[in-house]
Each structure stands twice: as C-alpha cells, then as structure tokens.
Write a structure and sequence with these properties.
The complex is a heterotrimer of chains A (167), B (612) and C (588). Chain B is an alpha/beta fold and 612 residues long. Chain B is built from 24 helices and 13 strands. Helices cover 46% and strands 12% of the residues of chain B. Chain C is α/β, with parallel strands linked by helices. In chain C, strands 2-1-5-3-4 form a 5-stranded mixed β-sheet, sandwiched between helices. Chain C has a 4-stranded parallel β-sheet with strand order 11-10-13-14, sandwiched between helices. A 4-stranded mixed β-sheet of chain C has the order 12-17-16-15, with helices on one face. In chain C, helix 15 (485-498) links the parallel strand 16 (472-480) and strand 17 (506-510). Classes of the chains: A alpha+beta (167), B alpha/beta (612), C alpha/beta (588). The interface between A and C is medium-sized, with 12 and 16 residues. Bound molecules: flavin mononucleotide, iron/sulfur cluster (7 copies) and FE2/S2 (inorganic) cluster (3 copies).
C-alpha cells in the first residue's frame, strides 16, 4: 500500500542518485551524504539499494552509518535545532540553552517532539565561535543567545511552520 | 591508464604553455580592472559574519551604491574572515588616498548610512578634505590600530579580508600560482630543499617537519602508478575554526600548496578531506578545483611541464577521530574512521594502500609564500625551532575574540591581554586552554610563556590545531576538564580498550569529583588510568585524551582538592548521622552480634577452584 | 631466500625473517607476551592493548609491529607490566563477573589472563550492563552472542567478514556504545549469518559460544522409554582427544565409542556410514549429470549446511547446480528411524538420534526444511558440537584416556576410508572420485591414485585439477572457507555470461577453513598447524582401512539390497535427498 509505494520510491530515487558515485573509489560516505540530503535520513531500503549498486555489504554500510554522528537512521522532525556545544559555546553558556530547550520542549540531544515538529541535536563547533553560543535552526543561524532567546526562537518557528502548513 | 603518444604529449605541453599565459593575463586584467575604481568596500562574508547577516548587508551596500550612482566608482568585495568575528558583520571602507576604515556590527541600515554619509561625501570632496563622521558612525568604528590588528603577522591569512575568495584573477594578481610555476622550473629536490630550509612544521598538531614527511613520500615508489597527497581539513577540535576560514577565504592557496608538494614528491593526485559541518569551506574547495580544471591548472602536463595532477574532494561525517591520519584514510576509503597501527606509515602504505602524505590545511597554505619569498624570509619569523606564524582561534572569555595569526613565540600575555584585549568580563584572567581535547591549560602564572611546540609540550599541553580558549576566574577547571573528557569519550572510535573503557571510567571519576562525591583515591585512579591510556591507547586521540584532566590537576590541584574535601565533610556528616542512628538501633536491640567482614570481591573468578 | 633481520629482545639477539611481528619474534626465543585480541589465523586488529612492549623507548603493540633491523625491544619492565595490568583492569571493569556460570569457564583467554595478572579486586566500578548494551542473541539456536561479555577484540568480525566473507557481524556504533551485531542490529537469525560458528571458534571469551544442547541430551538419556542413538562425524575422531590431553590429530575413535556407550547410548553409529551413502548417491548423481547429461554442470557438493545456507542467501541462481543429496549425518538420521527401526523392531518415535559434529551449522540443518523429517519424525533430534560432548564426558566422570577401545554398532557404524576423509577439504571430492571412477569405468582405481594430491591440503583456499575419466576430462575445483567461494562463483558466472563452457564439472565447498577438521564446533585454539595435524590423523585412518571406497562397504551393499534398491531410487530420493530455496539476506 502507501508504505510499499514510498519504499519503491525510495529505492528508485536512491538508484538514480547513485549513478554519480557508483564507480568512484571510496565514495560510500559521499553517497550516504546525498541520500540523507534527499530523505533527511538514511532509510533501510536506500541502504539495500546502495549495497547492491556499490557492491558494499550491508554490514559495512550500517557500521559506517552508526559510526558517524552526522547520519540519521530515522526521519528527524521538521524543524531541526542544532545547539553548538563546542568549547567556545560551552564556555559562553551552551548548557543553559540546552536546559532551556529541555524545559520548553522536553527535548534532549537526538530527540524529536511527539508531534514530529522539533528535533534537537547537539553539535560541536559550527565554525562561528565568534557568535557563541550558537544555535542553528533549519540552516538559519542565531548567535550570542541567552536562554530567554530560546523561547523566541521556538515561537518563531512554530509560527513559521503553522503558516507554511496552513497554506 | 592510457599511455599517450609523444605527439599527444607535445600537444598537451603546448596547450599548457598557452594556458599559463592566459592565467597570467587574467591577473593583469584584474589589476587593470581594479584601477578603474576610486574606492572599495570589503565586507566579510565568512561563516561568522554570514551567520550574523552579512548577505543582507552586502545587498544594502549594493543597492545604495546603485541609487547614489556610485556603482562604477566603488568596488564591492565579499571577503573571507577579517578576524574579529565576534563583532561582525565587519566592513572595511578603502578610499584612494585615505586611511582604511573598519566598521563593526554592520546592519543593512548602517550600510546605507555608511554609503551616504561616509563613502559618498569622501568621494565628492576628494582626499584632501578631512572626513566628518557622525557620532553614530564613529561609535561603529573598529580601530585598525588595535593591538588585535597590529600585533598580528599575516602569511596564511594575508588574503583574507582583502580579496574575493571566488575570484581566480585576483588570486593570480596577488601572486597566486606563481609559486607553482616557479617550482615547475626547478627540480623536485630543489623544492624540497626550500621547504627544508624554511623549517616549516606541520600545523595539524604534532609539528612534524613537513620536508621530512615529503621526503618520505618522495622516496616511496609509485604503487600501480599512483601516490597521493591528502589535505586534512577535518578540524574536529571544538572551538577551533582556522582551517575552515582559511579554506573559506579561498582554497586556491591550499590547492597550490598541495600541488607544490605533489611536484616535490611525485604524487599523482590529491584529496581534500573537509568536515561536513563546513559548507562554506566545501563550496570554496569545490570551486577552486573546478576553476583549476577549467584553466588547466589541474590536469595533464600542467603549464607545459611533465607534471600532471588531479584533485578531488570528500567530506567527513561528524567524527573527531577522522582528523587522525590513519582514521582519515579509512574514512576517505568510505569506511569507519578507526585508526590503525603505525608502522606502516601512510607514506609507505596510505590511501587505498598506496603511499600518501597527509598535510594540514594551514601547513599547505604556508607553502606558496615560502616558495615565492624564499625560506629565509619565512624562517626569520618565529623561534629557534618553531618557524613562521601560527593561526589561532582566540575564543572564550576574551574581549576581542576571533581569528588571529601571530609569529611563533608570541607570549600568552600578548595573546590574551594585548591581542585579546583582556577578559571580556573584566574579571581576572585564570588560564588559557590550548590544543583542545588533546591539550591542556596554561595558568596565569605562565603568562610570559612564548607559544611554540616545545614550550607547550613542556607544560603538558600541545599546539594542537590552534584553538585557544580564555577562561576567567569564574570558570571551573574541573568543569573544563570534564567538558573535554566528555568530548573525547564521545568521540573515541571504540576500537581499543584503553581509550574506550579508560576514557569512560576516567570521566565517571571526574564527574564524581565534580559532583562533590570524590575521594583522594579517585584522583589516584585518574592518574593510573591516564598513564595507561598514554601508553597503551592505539592512536593520538586516546593517548592525549587524559591531557586536559592531568594538566588541570597539575596546575589547579587545589580545585580538585577542595571538591574532595567538601565531599569528605559531607561524608563525615552523613556518617555521623548514621552512627547516631545505628547506636540508637543497637541500644534498642541490645544485641552484640559480630558482623561478618565484608571483604573485597574477586575481580573475575579464575575457576582455579575447579582445577584440583 | 627470505630476507633476515636481526633485532634484540630483552637484550637477546634474534634473527627472524622480514615481516615477522615483534610478538612472533619474541615467541621464537620463548618470551611470552600476553595477548587478547591476537589470533594466529587473523590479521591483527590491535584492539586490546595488552601486548604493548617498549620498542626503542616507545610503547607499541607487539602483535602488529613488524620487526625491523636493529630494533631494541623490551618486553617486560615494571612500567610495561603496570600499564598492562591497568588495561586489563579496565577491560574487566566492563565485563560481568560470571565465570562460574559461563560457558567459557576454564577455557577463556580473559579469565586466564586475569588469573595470571593476579587481579584481586575490582579496581574500577563495574560498568556492565551499560545502558547501551544489546540483549543476548540466541536466535539461531546454533551460536549465542552475549554482548556483555564481548571485549571487542574484533576476531569474530575479522573471521566473519574476511575469512568467511559473510559479513553477518560487524562493529557498530562507537565509543562505549561500540558493539558487535548484524546490520540494523538485527537478530543473527534474521541476518546473513550462515551459522558456521567460526566466530565462536575464534572468540577469546564467552561472548560468542555454541548453543548448548547438552542438557536436552541428558534428559533424553534419562527418559527410560527413549532409544538413544548417537553418531560421530569423521572430523570429530581426530580432534576430541585434544580435550583430554592428546596431541592434535590423534585418532581416538574407539575411545569415543566406549565413552558414548558409558554415557548410556543404546546404539553407537558412525556418520561415516552416512558419508559412504552420500558418496553412492552423490557419485551417482554426478555420473547422471556428467555422463548421461541429466542436469546441469558443474555439480556442487552440499554436505556442508553452512555452505548450503550461504548459497541460498548469496547465490540463489546456483541452486540447480547443487547436489540434492543430504549430508551424511542427516542420512544416518533418516535411515536410523526407518531402516534400523524396522530391523530392530523399535517404534521410530521412541528413537532419538544425536549427532556429534564438528559443526554449529548442523544444529540448524536438522530443522532447515521439511525434508529433514523424511522418516516421518525429526530425523536427527539433536546435533552436538565436539566441545559440548567433551564437556559431557567430563561431567560423566569418564576417564577417557584409560578407556578400552570399543567398536561401533552394526550396520550403521561400518565405514570405509573414503568416508573418513570427508572431514577435511578435498576429502569429499576424493571419496566421490574413487566411486565415480568405479561407476564410470567399472574398474577400481589404482591404489596409488587413491589420494588425489592436488586437491588436498589446507594451505591453498582454492585448488583445481583436471582428471582423466575413461577418456573424458573432468575439471575439478575444491574450495574451503566461504571467503574463497566468491572467486569460484565469479568464474562460473563469467563463463555463463559469455556463453562459454563452465570452467569446472565438479566443485567441492566446505565453509570452514580446512573443512570440518577446522569446524566451528571443534576444540578451541585452532591454527593451521593443528588443522594439518588433524588432517594427517584422518589420512592415516583412511590408509589403514580395510576398504577405501564407499561402494566396497559391505553394509552399504546390504543397505541397497535390503532397503533402498539402488542409488537415486525413489526411496533414496524420498529419504536421502533434499531441495533448496532462495533466502533473503535480511528479514525485517
Ligand atoms: C585525534 C586527532 C585529531 C586530529 N585532528 C586533526 C585535524 O582536525 N586537522 C589536522 O590537520 N590534523 C589533525 N590531527 C593530526 C593529523 O593526524 C596529522 O598529524 C596532520 O594532519 C598532519 O599534517 P601536518 O603534518 O601538516 O600537521 C589529529 C590527530 C589526532 C590524533
Ligand atoms: S585510542 Fe581511542 S580513538 Fe584511538 S584507536 Fe583507540 S579507541 Fe580509537
Ligand atoms: S568458584 Fe572458586 S575461583 Fe570462582 S570465585 Fe569461587 S572460590 Fe573463586
Ligand atoms: S567470558 Fe571469561 S572472564 Fe568472562 S565470565 Fe566468561 S569465563 Fe569469566
Ligand atoms: S556463525 Fe559464521 S556467519 Fe554466523 S556470525 Fe559467526 S562467523 Fe559469521
Ligand atoms: S564477540 Fe568475542 S570475538 Fe567477537 S569481538 Fe567480542 S570478544 Fe572478540
Ligand atoms: S562434511 Fe563435516 S559435518 Fe558433514 S559429514 Fe563430513 S565431517 Fe561431518
Ligand atoms: S565445513 Fe564442516 S564444520 Fe564447517 S560448517 Fe561446513 S559442515 Fe560444518
Ligand atoms: S564552539 Fe560553537 S561555533 Fe565553534
Ligand atoms: S567571519 Fe567575519 S570576521 Fe571572521
Ligand atoms: S594482542 Fe596486540 S593489541 Fe591485542
């Protein structure tokens, strides 16, 4: 049914995307980056197609996926909040921001809200330490945050999502 | 590989020679083009400033220049990191005949005012008239006379903030690819010789002499016709972003350095390994490779020589350990980034089993200037054993936080108090942390220490990649040690027991102390684990992971001590309470039973009892 | 000539061939360096950190550091020992203290190291179970993975991926969360695992062990109404002695029969009888395909269940090439509950057949398809590994060494030399050829030709030869260790694609290195030396046999006369043959 269909679609899309990497040396991680870029995570079906197309055992693909922080095995929420806890941000109070997110959304590192809207992840240094502590939400950067800013950010994205979903 | 005929090679060489001419002409054209302008506005659009809204600032500049009819007179340049990221977005106004002027915290509104109240009048009135700036504009000035700027010495960062990272013509106009051209007329050994004389050491952390690494690669025979150069742009150290900015500020310099290395060593192709969290750096590397291919800088018989070279790009995927060279190679091969033992060294058996030299981004970026200006020019800067400059990401509780490049041997004092302008809180300075998760702290008492590989090592820290975090009186050293250890425990690849379990156990002990529940024996255990990890961990990550803890114990023992004392007090009170309770109970029971002695449990049953 | 290198180890000069590791160099001068992750069969993973030594002043791992000219090695000083002790203490701190109830008790490398190092207290808080731990996985009923006991030495992964090329197991996740599991953290039964048990044969701890069926066997023996029958595989007779102090390769067949009889089995049979039947059936099948052109070529042997599983998962297109003949112990099982039951007049439902196998995969085989119930009952009730039966004999307090040798029971206990050589790589092929030669030419092979030298031996993973059979060329290939199969299969597929004649007519595959003598259920600590010794034991057994070809076995002749009719008869097909189905690699 619907699930089967989406599985077939995943397989097709993955197959297309792999033509770029198939015959390149050591390109598994690059291919997985592209897959995650497309689906937001790396679905099992995509792994199976990758295994076949690139001639790499599933065991290695899965081992690679679980080794690197970057890869997700489950679909994350719609709004991905990355809180930097690199040294500069840590010193400047990243923990306070994490606590604030926990208080407001009940989220800890790697968790998604029940409605699937927000996903929180802790990252290590986004390369803009000058703006510490840094939060990135779906690609938009917020610098020099205080715990009070956290509420504002959440409100902003709630509104934004309500709008786009309403349309 | 397809063998080319003599004739084809000749053709390629001719093509190369004409490409060289074309490239040099591009540089000349650029110089001509620039002459047409009366002024320039340089806006930083690197990661930090971009995140701070630089893009809309640039739009505002362009728009108001347009409306004021100044587009033909003022050149708009989006540049790489200008250094003082914390006060970004930054914009520098340069008008011919006048001193450059730097603005901080530029917003689109401020940009419009700058054009109407600074740029336009200055151009109208000519260079002789003094500028009359409003107080508001003056309040947004960032003096270029700050020690933050004057105390720096820029080799690697020279182009950042002064040029357009995407403009190949500009790169060539400022000497780009001329070092490579120069090398191609020399013998590879001569190139090696220059690097050797310069005393350049690896900026990736350990300070291994670059020439020695290259010699090893040069000596290794080709394997299936291949040998590799790898640029290590993984920069996983949290709180360090030098390499990100160097690449983001234009990857041609690094590519040129890599190609010079390849020429000197006989490498046939190169790989950039860049952290996935650095989209800007990735974009710039992609662009540089694309441009270089287009203009015949990468390819066969480059500039008409016998030298052929190709380069490609791969990203990391979020694993600090992949900065370690053997792990990086695994990752480049599309595998888990787990280190493997050396020997064999990568220069013997590296990527895909073939000889490979791995160099840090900053190391490679140093190479073209050394070739162009000579080894002596380079080795004059720095100390006896540490030559040249080093880029640091100065962050934490410091007033001027940002990216700085200083001569080796600059003191901690100068870094923190002059360049950094002291602590941001105004509270007393306590320590700086260098070397990130592999390094340690330098306490205030060592402020006069010159920063170089050897001195840092003596203090139990290390140069690392160049993160430098300033901490003031409020920062707890136990906390910072815990922070770093937490990081390395998370980032341990999990392969070897000393690091996988040792780090985790050590973290539990540090946590226990930080939570006010530790004992002296916990401190001893920390040291025991630390020693074992240094000796028995497989790679640098595990070997250096204890450093932040051991170094804070060394210099801030009293902080640990007082936490332990508190714990003892707490325990004593608890025991007293318990004793009172139990004596009460005892009295009630009026029973004097001997309790069995609870001795230690055996760690693991050896089954000896069964082998009668 | 090999290039030699001189180095000093503990102030003593040693000369070793270039490429020797420091660990091996030390061994040559009787210097023992403790190890945990190293295994001579495998590429060193450098994981445990126990084998550190000082080389020119630097602490390095001896197992993976090649000796170099002029190296100065110190293998013991208080610093080194202290560091090793701490590393061991750390390893123990993430390990349960469960030796008493552990299947590896007394055979565990970690346990014996802890014993040697005299660690008397838990130096660090024990961190098992960590929140990240996976549950025990006994889903295959062949092998059991208990991640809590895993020290992440990586041996199992190395075997499973690189020697077996199955890639069922891999190292997942990282940091303290690192663990061993199939992709997707699937259960082993839902993974590509072929149950070869090589991982259990290489695991230094109790983290990967054979599924223990011994208690089930004891209760079967206890049940008065049961008529318990036992059979031993060819490869068991040369390895079991090791558990009782014999040199590897010692043939202890008579003592094994005696011990089993003492344990209470009513009839002692030998899988070798089944092997002789296999040869009759498989040999005839080959003749049918090769001479009469009925069926595809090459024909591939099917007596190794791990290999069958491998083929069904990885090469389902090869199914038509497989011999349909069951493996020897399955044949003995089916015949016991039919032919033998009739003979002695015992109700087959009362008969329990227990197989003693070198193999963990046989535990799976006895349930793998409906054909394993050909007698109307489960043909083989329990399959035990060599390791399990050794423990049971010790439990029973049987003084194995001083047992009088005894004989097996008739008729399913009589066998030829051809059956014995089934236990090592190349043996099945050799045995088959002896009979095929007879079937095709009507003449016995010359005595000196009986041993087909080019296909014997454990050193080469793939062995090939061409044989002249009544004027026709037979191209033969023998592979062992499933890691070597890929090459062979590729050759077949390539030829197929090009429309060429297949490169072979007859292929033998054994999943384990060396064949069953190196099986996953065999006594631990196997190396190539031991494999060779076990193989030599079986060869001598063959050499001194009265009959050396399966078709000469009088009991076999009788079996066909009295019961089956002729090879490939309808009855044999029903009882002795099976079928294959493609199996997906992962079940989700
Ligand atoms: C855990 C660990 C992380 C490392 N991370 C980096 C890194 O992010 N960037 C880097 O250039 N070198 C890093 N290194 C050092 C590299 O292994 C290697 O020495 C360096 O890239 C060599 O280049 P160089 O000689 O130019 O310094 C790291 C080393 C270790 C042990
Ligand atoms: S020291 Fe740590 S990171 Fe390095 S190999 Fe060992 S476990 Fe992996
Ligand atoms: S059984 Fe024996 S060896 Fe094991 S814990 Fe008890 S006394 Fe010790
Ligand atoms: S694996 Fe070894 S050390 Fe661990 S419980 Fe079992 S016998 Fe003891
Ligand atoms: S039994 Fe064989 S296939 Fe299964 S996990 Fe072990 S080694 Fe791999
Ligand atoms: S299961 Fe056994 S062999 Fe595999 S890694 Fe763990 S301890 Fe080693
Ligand atoms: S192949 Fe192995 S398991 Fe099968 S009968 Fe022969 S020895 Fe036994
Ligand atoms: S080779 Fe023998 S022991 Fe190994 S799996 Fe096959 S039948 Fe079992
Ligand atoms: S530490 Fe947060 S951006 Fe660098
Ligand atoms: S990013 Fe703009 S100054 Fe550093
Ligand atoms: S035996 Fe050498 S590291 Fe384990």
């Amino acid at each position: 049914m619907a699930e089967n269909e989406s599985q077939e679609k995943i397989k097709e899309d993955t197959q297309k995307l792999l033509t770029k990497w198939k015959n390149k040396r050591g390109a598994l991680i690059m291919a997985l980056h592209d897959i995650q870029g497309l689906f937001g995570y790396v679905p099992w079906e995509a792994m199976e197609v990758t295994a076949k197309e690139m001639g790499v055992p599933m065991a290695r693909i899965y081992a690679v996926l679980t080794f690197y922080n970057y890869f997700k095995l489950k679909a994350p929420g719609k709004v991905i909040i990355s809180v930097c806890d690199g040294t500069a941000c840590h010193i400047k109070g990243a923990q306070g921001l994490l606590d604030a997110f926990y208080n407001c959304l009940g989220l800890k590192d790697g968790q998604t809200t029940e409605d699937g809207l927000f996903h929180l992840q802790v990252v290590r240094c986004l390369g803009c330490c000058g703006l510490a502590p840094v939060i990135v939400v779906n690609g938009k950067t917020y610098g020099k945050n205080t715990p009070a800013d956290v509420q504002k950010i959440i409100a902003e994205w709630r509104e934004k999502m309500a709008e786009t979903q309403g349309v | 590989m397809v063998e080319l005929t003599q004739e084809q090679i000749q053709k390629l060489k001719e093509l190369g020679r004409s490409q060289k001419e074309k490239l040099l002409k591009m540089g000349e054209d650029f110089k001509e083009e620039v002459k047409k302008y009366k002024a320039a506005i340089y806006t930083c659009n690197a990661t930090s400033c971009h995140s701070g809204g630089a893009a809309s600032v640039i739009d505002a500049f362009k728009e108001s220049l347009e409306t004021m009819g100044l587009s033909q007179d003022v050149r708009m340049v989006c540049t790489g990191c200008m250094g003082l990221c914390a006060t970004g977005p930054l914009a520098r106004v340069e008008i011919k005949g006048r001193e450059p002027f730097l603005y901080k915290e530029v917003t689109p509104d401020l940009a419009r005012i700058i054009v109407s109240e600074h740029v336009a009048p200055a151009l109208r009135e000519g260079p002789d008239q003094p500028l009359r700036l409003s107080n508001y504009l003056k309040s947004k000035e960032l003096s270029l006379q700050l020690p933050f700027f004057t105390k720096q010495r820029k080799i690697v960062l020279a182009r950042l903030g002064h040029s357009d990272p995407e403009n190949l013509g500009e790169y060539v106009a400022t000497g780009g690819y001329q070092a490579l051209m120069k090398c191609l007329e020399m013998k590879p050994e001569e190139v090696l010789d220059i690097i050797r004389k310069s005393g350049l050491r690896g900026r990736g952390g350990a300070g291994f002499p670059t020439a020695r690494k290259w010699e090893m690669l040069a000596q290794a025979p080709l394997c299936d016709g291949e040998k590799f150069m790898v640029c290590n742009g993984d920069e996983g150290d949290p709180g360090a972003y030098m390499d990100s900015c160097i690449l983001g500020g234009g990857a041609h310099a690094v590519l040129e350095g890599m190609m010079i290395g390849a020429y000197a060593t006989g490498a046939t192709s190169g790989w950039f390994y860049v952290r996935a969290e650095y989209p800007l750096a990735i974009e710039r590397v992609e662009l540089a490779i694309k441009q270089a291919k287009k203009y015949g800088i990468l390819g066969k018989n480059i500039f008409g020589s016998d030298f052929s070279f190709m380069a490609d790009l791969r990203y990391g995927a979020g694993a600090f350990v992949c900065g370690e060279e053997t792990a990086l190679l695994e990752s480049l091969e599309g595998k888990r980034g787990t280190p493997h033992p050396r020997p064999p060294y990568p220069t013997q058996k590296g990527l895909f089993g073939k000889p490979t030299a791995i160099n840090n981004v900053e190391t490679l970026a140093n190479v073209p200037p050394i070739i162009l200006k000579g080894p002596e020019w380079f080795s004059e800067v720095g100390t006896a054993t540490s030559k040249g400059t080093k880029v640091f990401a100065l962050t934490g509780k410091v007033k001027h936080s940002g990216l700085v490049e200083v001569p080796m041997g600059t003191t901690v004092e100068c870094m923190v108090n002059e360049i950094g302008g002291g602590t941001s809180s105004g509270k007393p300075f306590k320590a700086v942390q260098t070397g990130g998760p592999s390094g340690g702290v330098i306490p205030a008492s060592h402020l006069d220490m010159p920063i170089c590989y050897e001195e840092l090592k003596k203090l139990g820290s290390m140069m690392g990649s160049g993160g430098m975090i300033v901490m003031d009186q409020d920062d707890s050293m136990v906390e910072i040690a815990k922070f770093y250890l937490n990081f390395t425990v998370d980032e341990s690849c999990g392969k070897c027991a000393p690091c996988r379990i040792g780090g985790y156990q050590m973290l539990q002990l540090v946590k226990k102390i930080a939570d006010g529940e530790g004992t002296q024996s916990d401190l001893k255990k920390i040291q025991e684990i630390g020693t074992a990890m240094k000796q028995a961990a497989l790679c640098g990550l595990g070997q250096t992971a204890p450093n932040p803890v051991l170094s804070t114990i060394r210099f801030f023992y009293d902080e640990y001590e007082s936490l332990i004392q508190q714990a003892q007090q707490k325990k004593a009170e608890k025991q007293k309470l318990q004793a009172e309770m139990s004596s009460l109970e005892n009295e009630m029971k009026k029973l004097d039973e001997r309790k069995p002695d609870s001795t230690v449990h055996s760690a693991a049953c050896s089954g000896q009892c069964k082998k009668v | 000539m090999e290039e030699m290198i001189t180095l000093t180890i503990d102030s003593k000069e040693v000369k070793v061939p270039k490429g020797t590791s420091v660990l091996d160099a030390a061994k040559m001068i009787q210097v023992e360096i403790p190890t945990l992750c190293y295994h001579p069969d495998l590429h060193p993973s450098a994981a445990c950190g126990i084998c550190i030594v000082k080389i020119n002043g630097k602490m390095l791992r001896s197992c993976c550091t090649p000796a170099e000219e002029g190296m100065e090695v110190i293998t013991r000083d208080p610093d080194i020992i202290e560091a090793r002790r701490t590393v061991l203490k750390l390893t123990l701190s993430k390990h349960p203290n469960e030796c008493l109830t552990c299947q590896k008790n007394e055979m565990c490398e970690l346990q014996s190291l802890a014993g040697k190092f005299g660690i008397r207290a838990n130096a660090f808080d024990n961190i098992t179970p960590t929140p990240f731990e996976m549950p025990k996985d006994a889903s295959t009923k062949c092998i059991v993975l208990d991640p809590r006991k895993c020290i992440l030495c990586g041996r199992c992964v190395e075997v499973c991926q690189h020697i077996q090329n199955v890639w069922a197991l891999s190292i997942l996740d990282r940091s303290v969360k690192t663990h061993i599991a199939p992709a997707g953290d699937s259960r082993l039964a839902d993974s590509p695992c072929i149950k070869c048990g090589q991982c259990t044969a290489h695991c230094p701890t109790g983290a990967l062990v054979e599924y223990d069926d011994s208690e089930r066997v004891w209760s079967m023996l206890q049940e008065k109404d049961n008529y318990c029958v036992v059979q031993i595989a060819p490869a068991v007779r040369v390895s079991m002695g090791e558990a009782f102090g014999y040199e590897p390769g010692t043939v202890t067949t008579g003592k094994i029969y005696a011990a089993l009889r003492k344990m209470g089995f009513k009839a002692i049979f030998d899988t070798n009888f089944g092997a002789d039947v296999t040869i009759m059936e498989e040999g005839s099948e080959f003749v049918e395909r090769f001479v009469n052109g009925n069926g595809v070529l090459p024909m591939i042997t099917s007596c190794c269940p791990a290999w069958v599983d491998f083929m069904e998962k990885f090469y389902p297109d090869m199914i038509p090439h497989f011999s349909t003949c069951k493996s020897p112990h399955a044949i003995v099982g089916a015949l016991t509950k039919t032919y033998y039951a009739e003979k002695i007049g015992v109700e087959p439902s009362k008969i329990k057949v227990i197989s003693i196998m070198p193999c963990t995969a046989k535990k799976f085989e006895i349930l793998r398809s409906k054909e394993m119930f050909a007698s109307g009952f489960q043909d083989v009730d329990v399959s035990l590994t060599t390791r399990e039966i050794c423990r049971m004999i010790k439990q029973a307090g049987i003084d194995f060494v001083n047992l009088q040798e005894e004989r097996a029971d008739s008729p399913l206990g009589e066998y030829t030399g051809a059956a014995t050589v089934f236990g090592f790589t190349g043996g099945v092929m050799e045995a088959a050829l002896r009979t095929v030669h007879y079937l095709v030419t009507g003449q016995e092979m010359n005595k000196e030709d009986l041993e087909v030298k080019p296909i014997l031996g454990v050193e080469k993973g793939i062995k090939e030869m061409t044989l002249n059979l009544a004027g026709k060329e037979v191209r033969i290939c023998v592979a062992h260790g499933t890691g070597n199969v890929e090459t062979v299969m590729k050759r077949l597929q390539e030829a197929k694609e090009k429309g060429e004649e297949p490169p072979y007519h007859f292929i033998e595959v054994m999943a384990c290195n060396g064949g069953c003598i190196g099986g996953g259920g065999q006594p631990l600590g196997v190396t190539d030396e031991i494999r060779k010794a076990r193989m030599a034991g079986l060869m001598s057994d063959d050499e001194f046999s009265e009959f050396r070809c399966s078709h000469q076995n009088p009991s076999i002749k009788k079996l066909y006369e009295e019961f089956l009719g002729k090879p490939l008869s309808e009855k044999s097909h029903h009882l002795l043959h099976t079928s294959y189905q493609p199996i997906p690699l992962y079940k989700r």
